[in-house]
User: Fold this.
Amino acid sequence: MSLLLYMHPLSSFCHKVLIALYENDTPFEPRLVRLDDEASREDFRKVWPILRFPVLRDEARDRTVPESSIIIEYLAQHYPGRTALLPADPQAALEVRERDRFFDLYLHVPTQKVITDRLRPADGHDTIGVAQARTQLRTAYALLEQAMGGRTWATGDTFSMADCAAAPPLFYADWAEPLDGFPQLAAYRQRLMARPSFARALREAEPYLQYVPKA
Assistant:
């Protein structure tokens, strides 16, 4: 197998890449990384010393590709399929990249902050940081509620890399900062969850979801 994906089924950023792979039925071999296991962690360190996943290893081209957005662009360039996740038109592609960055920075990151803080010991919670993350999420929700009016997907009628980025944090939003009061965004979340590529990623994550702290 040429493509190896170092990942964990609970990681929202890994879900983002899985969606892209499943959209195009791109053959790959998943490599489960357990950072709490010394052997798994050290094996992964040899591939990517930063120890952050997902990471794509392309054995055929001898390339190691970190970071979810870069992985998706790499796949689009070298392993294109029926779903063009980046438009050919430069201006349209720029809009997709802008939405992708918005979802990663203003949904993914604060959602992770809220949820992972629950894993901290009782005397180590970052209450100020969590409050700031929740505020950022509500601000992002409000902007997206306006933007999604009349749209099926993040940038219009075509599913793209931006939707790959939106799906995981919006799924976890129920456990971080619910979408109450944002009907357009909630409907978009339902469309994302019904997308076969994301539904598959969620099915594969299901055995692990019990470990996500919900409150």
In short: The radius of gyration is 17 Å. The CA atoms of residues 107 and 137 lie 6 Å apart. The beta strands are 3-7, 29-32, 55-58, 63-66.
